[in-house]
Amino acid sequence: MNFEYLETANQNIKNKPLLINMVSRRVKQLTQGMRPMVKPDHPHQENLDIALKEVAEGLLTAEIVETTPDIDDETAAEKLLSL
Q: How far is the C-alpha of 49 from the C-alpha of 34, rounded, in Å?
């Protein structure tokens, strides 16, 4: 693992669990045949390093989106009882 890419990626994405999930998903995509968004440093560069380099260069980002609206306890209880 290239620690320089890791440090730069960690500066771009402060949330470590999110960074781990992003890189893990991207490594899986690269393993399945998706093309890298960056030029590999050498022909045998690992997919992990490529994914970290993509994050470090700002090409791979994440956005946290809240999918459930805030509801009060009474409304939540009514929804549970209606199931």
A: 15
Backbone angles phi, psi at 53, to 5 degrees: -65, -40
Alpha carbons 58 and 79: distance in angstroms, whole number:
41
**Superfamily in which the 3-81 domain is placed by CATH:** RNA polymerase subunit, RPB6/omega (3.90.940.10)
* Sequence ranges of the domains in the chain: 3-81
CB neighbour list of residue 26: distance below 8 Å, 6 or more residues apart:
47, 51, 54, 55, 60
pLDDT in tens, the chain (83 residues): 899 999 999 999 999 999 999 999 999 999 999 999 999 999 999 999 999 999 999 998 887 777 766 777 777 777 777 75
